[in-house]
Design brief:
Order of helices and strands: EHEEHEHEEHEHEEEHEEHEEHEH
Number of strands: 15
CATH class of the largest domain: Alpha Beta
Largest sheet: 11 strands, mixed
Number of domains: 2
Bound molecules: threonylcarbamoyladenylate, magnesium ion
């Protein structure tokens, strides 16, 4: 059932559902989440079951404000606090040392916890309403509301199409950011970028004075992170990332016979086929991120077998979009 997230009655109903241990489709500024009370292990287990996600892949705990950090994290290093001050509420998740009894099932028993304070007004209203309940719900665990490995949802209708009408979903319109939050591991003394997103490496460096490391630069293995698996975000069609020249050469070879193919391109292309779907990728990374997952779903709905995508620039602003595209292509 989809409820209008702008209505106070919907927000109250959503908070009550979370308190009662039920699942909720929750809009955030990044993507829609499949939410449950972080400290209710049985409710959290339902998230893993509904998504088909292995319990060893930890969930992000969403909080109403930075005061709620003390309920989940043992300590907050200075650079993490600077990132919180600069970017919360907003699309940034911090991995921090976990308090022993907090969010056990959500974190898969790891000694760290991922915390994020979303800026979407509906998410914020729900999290605040949760804090006001008796007993309060301090944290809401929410992975992206898609089946494991599939494309993340950016509208309430996407969520309903993944999980059916039985799930309560708050409609908060289309997500502004469109790709999941940037994840920074703050448990290693220096910031480590686990997942790129709208908040870029440069943004992080400006806010805390430290250039984030990539996880490949770490000596030891990082915890399992499904949003960081190589093959992820898979549409049904096979995705190939290509440079412009390769793309045009491919279209030339196929000629007028090309069909069952969608092309998401940045540069002008020509094709002799009338049966190809051509879509132009926005020139700005923020706009490209906003429509990316919806576009992959749209291509799937057209029933194409192949999606050819022109590689975006290899610059920090495009890192989030490139990351999602690379992994969508790796799933083929
Ligand atoms: O934008 C987002 O972050 C969205 C919205 C709903 O807030 N949520 C999201 O959740 O993308 P999910 O579960 O699809 O991705 C969470 C990522 C996973 O890669 C997970 O492994 C990682 O965060 N993660 C969570 N807790 C972690 C921890 N303690 N250590 C390392 N990685 C962690
Ligand atoms: Mg996900």
């Amino acid at each position: 059932m989809i409820l209008d997230g702008k209505l106070d009655a919907s927000v109250q109903a959503a908070a009550a559902a979370l308190q009662a241990g039920q699942l909720l489709g929750l809009p955030t500024e990044t993507v829609y989440g499949l939410a449950a009370d972080s400290d209710n292990d049985a409710a959290v287990a339902q998230i893993f079951a509904a998504k088909g996600r292995p319990a060893s892949h930890p969930l992000i705990v969403h909080v109403a404000d930075s005061a709620a950090i003390t309920r989940y994290a043992k300590e907050v290093p200075l650079f993490a606090q600077q990132l919180i001050d600069a970017f919360w509420p907003g699309p940034l998740t911090l991995i921090l040392p976990r308090l022993p009894h907090a969010a056990k099932a959500s974190t898969g028993g790891q000694d760290s916890v991922g915390l994020r304070c979303p800026s979407h007004p509906v998410a914020h209203a729900v999290l605040q309403a949760c804090q006001g309940l008796n007993p309060p719900v301090w944290g809401v665990s929410a992975p992206s509301a898609n089946k494991f490995g599939r494309v993340s949802p950016t509208t309430a209708a996407h969520v309903a199409s993944e999980f059916g009408d039985a799930l309560l979903v708050l409609d908060g319109s289309a997500c502004e950011v469109g790709i999941e939050s940037t994840i920074v591991d703050c448990t290693r003394g220096v910031p480590v970028l686990l997942r790129p997103g709208a908040i870029t490496r440069d943004d992080i460096e400006r806010a805390c004075g430290l250039r984030p490391l990539s996880k490949e630069e770490l000596p030891a293995h990082t915890p399992r992170a499904s949003g960081t698996l190589l093959a992820h975000y898979a549409p049904n069609a096979k995705v190939r990332l290509m440079e412009y020249k390769q793309l045009q050469a491919g279209l030339d070879i196929l000629g007028a016979d090309a069909r069952n193919l969608a092309v998401y391109h940045r540069s002008p292309l020509s094709t002799a086929s009338r049966n190809i779907t051509l879509r132009l990728m926005p020139g700005e990374p923020q706009a490209a991120a906003r429509e990316l997952f919806g576009m992959l779903r749209e291509f799937d709905q057209l029933g194409v077998q192949l999606i050819w995508i022109e590689s975006p620039p290899d610059t920090p602003e495009w890192e989030g979009v490139r990351d999602r595209l690379t992994r969508a292509a790796a799933a083929a």
